[in-house]
């Protein structure tokens, strides 16, 4: 199996998934299952491995998302019942104006998603988008797209993962630079290498 074949399989799988969901109106979960099986077959994966791989991959993903969605739904319900969501939406609309509601929700997504994971930020902010759409009478899609764009832009910036991995990366750098068998430090001296990384 060549690299080109695998790339074409991946691209084709994404396009097929979009077609099944958007044009064929197939349920997203069923479409994902069908595309996953097709991708496994075209990538040369043995038949007995496809089901196990799908189970492992989807189980790990859903295991993480289930906690995020459940806690986010509970938190969102609390914000809704206490009126906090409406207050947030009203305050943002006063600051930006009704005609710039899409800028407000996009900026909120960008700022709030910096320390959060993509899914967490969406679950927390989607209720604000609904509230803003209700107050302004704007089509919800015109607010959700900027929200996703802001969160996606924040996901491109090193955030939670970078903070979590920073100590490990620093330890790995020190290990390699302290190794006398590593060509750079072996030739230039360990003291210089230690000084370079602090």
TrEMBL record:
<feature type="transmembrane region" description="Helical">
    <location>
        <begin position="6"/>
        <end position="22"/>
    </location>
</feature>
<feature type="transmembrane region" description="Helical">
    <location>
        <begin position="143"/>
        <end position="164"/>
    </location>
</feature>
<keyword id="KW-0472">Membrane</keyword>
<keyword id="KW-0812">Transmembrane</keyword>
<feature type="transmembrane region" description="Helical">
    <location>
        <begin position="59"/>
        <end position="80"/>
    </location>
</feature>
<dbReference type="GO" id="GO:0005886">
    <property type="term" value="C:plasma membrane"/>
</dbReference>
<protein>
    <submittedName>
        <fullName>Low-affinity gluconate transporter</fullName>
    </submittedName>
</protein>
<keyword id="KW-1133">Transmembrane helix</keyword>
<dbReference type="GO" id="GO:0015128">
    <property type="term" value="F:gluconate transmembrane transporter activity"/>
</dbReference>
<feature type="transmembrane region" description="Helical">
    <location>
        <begin position="101"/>
        <end position="131"/>
    </location>
</feature>
<dbReference type="InterPro" id="IPR003474">
    <property type="entry name" value="Glcn_transporter"/>
</dbReference>
<dbReference type="Pfam" id="PF02447">
    <property type="entry name" value="GntP_permease"/>
</dbReference>
<feature type="transmembrane region" description="Helical">
    <location>
        <begin position="29"/>
        <end position="47"/>
    </location>
</feature>
């Amino acid at each position: 199996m060549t690299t080109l074949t695998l790339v074409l399989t991946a691209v084709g799988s994404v396009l097929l998934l979009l077609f099944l969901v958007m044009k064929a109106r197939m349920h997203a979960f069923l479409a994902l299952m069908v595309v996953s099986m097709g991708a496994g077959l075209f990538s040369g994966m043995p038949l007995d491995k496809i089901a196990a791989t799908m189970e492992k991959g989807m189980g790990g993903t859903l295991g993480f998302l289930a906690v995020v969605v459940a806690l986010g739904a509970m938190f969102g319900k609390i914000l809704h019942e206490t009126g906090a969501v409406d207050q947030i939406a009203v305050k943002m609309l006063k600051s930006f104006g009704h005609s710039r509601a899409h800028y407000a929700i996009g900026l909120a997504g960008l700022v709030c998603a910096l320390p959060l994971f993509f899914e967490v930020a969406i679950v927390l902010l989607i209720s604000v988008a609904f509230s803003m759409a209700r107050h302004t009478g704007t089509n919800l899609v015109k607010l959700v797209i900027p929200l996703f764009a802001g969160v996606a832009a924040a996901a491109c910036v090193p955030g939670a993962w970078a903070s979590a991995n920073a100590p490990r990366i620093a330890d790995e750098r020190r290990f390699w630079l302290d190794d006398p068998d590593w060509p750079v430090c072996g030739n230039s001296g360990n003291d210089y290498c230690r000084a370079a990384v602090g």
